[in-house]
Amino acid sequence: MSFFDKIVAAITPPESDETRLETRAKARALARPGDWLDQVLDQHDRIEAAFAAVKAAPDAASQLAAQKDLAVILTGHSNAEESVLYPALVDDGHKAHAGLAYEEQAAAKVQMALLEKIEPLTQDYFDKLEHIRGAVTHHMYQEESNWFLDIQREVPDAEQAMLTRRFAEEVERYVGEPATV
Q1: CATH fold of 33-175, please?
Q2: What is the pLDDT of residue 179?
Q3: What own/partner pairs with CB < 8 Å and gap ≥ 24 does 168-173 have?
């Protein structure tokens, strides 16, 4: 963790697991089965499970395989959001949220690339993995607490259907399977 990251972490401590779970439950209550928000939340669950699989891997080969799986789902998910949902944020008048979202996801991609250079099963590896996980879970919390809820509340139903279709298409393009797995 860089000096700057340590300062930011000290000033803005992460949300608690309980707060994130409550926020996700509220977002799930607003999502319609199979809609883009439901797909996003399912993907967020998968991302968290993928981080846990990397951390729990019993040996270096398993850890690297789990890391590759994490990279695929994380990159595919972020590319789908960047292609479909962040433009919707901008169109809906939330340009600052979209800008921050793009920036955070670019940083996560850089950090995942740096993780590839660290020896698996080492403390440095686990520290970097946890740093990335913390940043990603905070990002997901922001999306679930208000960014995406704004889109769902404010965008007309006809456009909601387009967002649902396009998000599923983009996830499938990058991950190789539909978003509603």
Answers
A1: Four Helix Bundle (Hemerythrin (Met), subunit A) (1.20.120)
A2: 58
A3: 168/36, 168/39, 170/76, 170/79, 170/80, 170/83, 170/84, 171/39, 171/43, 171/76, 171/77, 171/80, 173/76, 173/79, 173/80
